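User: Please predict the structure of the protein below. I'd like the answer in structure-token form so I can feed it into my own downstream comparison script.

Assistant: Understood. Taking the following sequence of 135 residues as input:
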Amino acid sequence: MKRFSYIFTFVMILLLSGCKEDEPVLIIHPQSGTYSIGGDKNLVVTLDGVRITEKDGEVVFETPDNKIGKFEINNIIPSYGTVTVAGIELSETADGKGIAFSGEAAISETEKIIFSGTLIGFVLTIDIETVPISA
């Protein structure tokens, strides 16, 4: 029994000595999934300053590595069934508990969206503003 306690102690010392305090560790698993208003993976969305509460809208968010993401906005922006935005640069939130993102993307020849949001746990929050494209 003494031998087991020595081996256990040795293994624990090895494991703990491998961690450096000066290296930040972001432990967020890739968050891919469908986020909907009132769903298990909850969506909080604001469009042009108005909070959307209809339950048919959803956002499909994908990221394999928490560095680059892609999302599909479904049934949220009027006159656009699905809007897909890819190549979104992701970063860590200020408190280190989730993913943050922002950017803009053309949704037609005359209109674009400006967006920003966070993904913390099972809650995707996204603010979307539609603006005309200047010629």
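That's the full token string. The longest helix spans residues 2-17.
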